[in-house]
Amino acid sequence: MFHLIFFLTMLSICLASDPNTIYKLRMYVTNAIGDNIVVHVSGSEDLGNRTLAFNQEFDWRFGVKLGTYYLGEFWWGSKHASVSLFNFHISRTCFNGKVFSIQRCYWLVKPDGFWYHEKNDTFPGEWTRRATW
Ligand SMILES: *[C@@H]1O[C@H](CO)[C@@H](O)[C@H](O)[C@H]1NC(C)=O
Ligand SMILES: *[C@@H]1O[C@H](CO)[C@@H](O)[C@H](O)[C@H]1NC(C)=O
Question: Which of 52, 58, 71, 75 is the pocket-test mutation for ligand 1 (most atoms within 8 Å of CB)?
Answer without folding.
Answer: 75
